Structure formats: C-alpha cells, structure tokens
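Re: that backbone. Tokens:
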C-alpha cells in the first residue's frame, strides 16, 4: 500500500506575493517511508530535505515512496491567495 502524504504551510505571509514556507510529510504503516519527492511548477522531481520556500502562485506537487517501492498518488498544493471571510488575506486551503 502506498504511503499517505500531506503538506502544511509553516507560516502565514501578510502579502500575496511574499514567499511562504511549506513542509511536506508522509507516513507508511507497512515498510516505512523511503523518500518524499516534490516539484515546483512542473519542473524536475527533487528529493525533499526540508521546508520549501514557495511563492503565492507556485504549484507544488509531492509524492512519497515506501521501502517496498510503492509510490503514492501525487499531492497537488496550489498556493493561490484569496480574501477569507474574516477579511484577512491568506492562502487557499491545501488540496
């Protein structure tokens, strides 16, 4: 069974064009997570080694592979900005 994966914003930025930090994580109850990979705006896949700095319009994709060789579906993180109901500027919820 492939690992599950998630992305979590590490900071809120007050301006829609300011970079923000994004952390990726994966879990696997079987053989354990071997690696997490990501790419930004359709670029090459890279091995994840720590928080990413992304811009408000960056499209981040992530996937995880376990020690048995199973790879998860791709997680897409769209960081487009919007006005929330509290009238604060912030990132859209992650998908």
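Recovered sequence:
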């Amino acid at each position: 069974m492939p690992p599950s994966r998630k992305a979590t914003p590490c900071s809120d930025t007050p301006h829609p064009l300011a970079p923000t930090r994004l952390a990726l994580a994966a879990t696997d109850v079987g053989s354990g997570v071997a690696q997490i990979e990501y790419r930004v705006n359709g670029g090459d896949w890279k091995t994840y080694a720590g928080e990413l700095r992304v811009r408000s319009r960056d499209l981040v994709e992530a996937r995880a592979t376990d020690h048995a060789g199973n790879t998860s579906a791709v997680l897409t993180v769209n960081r487009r900005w919007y006005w929330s109901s509290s009238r604060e500027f912030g990132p859209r919820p992650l998908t």
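Strands lie at 4-9, 20-27, 33-40, 46-47, 52-54, 59-66, 75-78, 81-83, 89-91. Confidence is low (pLDDT under 50) at residues 81-95.
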